[in-house]
Design brief:
The structure is a single chain. The chain is of the alpha+beta class. It has one domain. Helix content is about 20%, strand content about 25%. A two-stranded antiparallel ribbon has the order 1-2. The longest helix has 15 residues. The chain is flat and about 45 Å long. The model has no long low-confidence stretch (mean pLDDT about 90).
């Protein structure tokens, strides 16, 4: 069984390159993007280091540097 990182590097990154995305160019693709989200109602402080955060493996940026997907 391959790790997530190895799967991304060997399979997903190659498919993205074939689709003309340069995964090492941060003006096109951001990996491991941290998305801050609101805490649940009634919670004023995060209970863990990750509460209030979600993560995206990839964010694809348009020519205007705004996220497309």
């Amino acid at each position: 069984m391959k790790s997530e990182l190895l799967t991304r590097k060997e399979i997903i990154d190659k498919k993205l390159q074939a689709a003309a995305w340069n995964v090492v160019d941060r003006s096109q693709v951001i990996e491991e993007f941290d998305i801050e989200v609101d805490l649940p109602d009634g919670v004023s402080e995060p209970l863990t280091a990750y509460q209030g955060h979600q993560f995206s493996d990839y964010v694809f940026l348009g020519k205007d540097a705004k996220p497309l997907a």
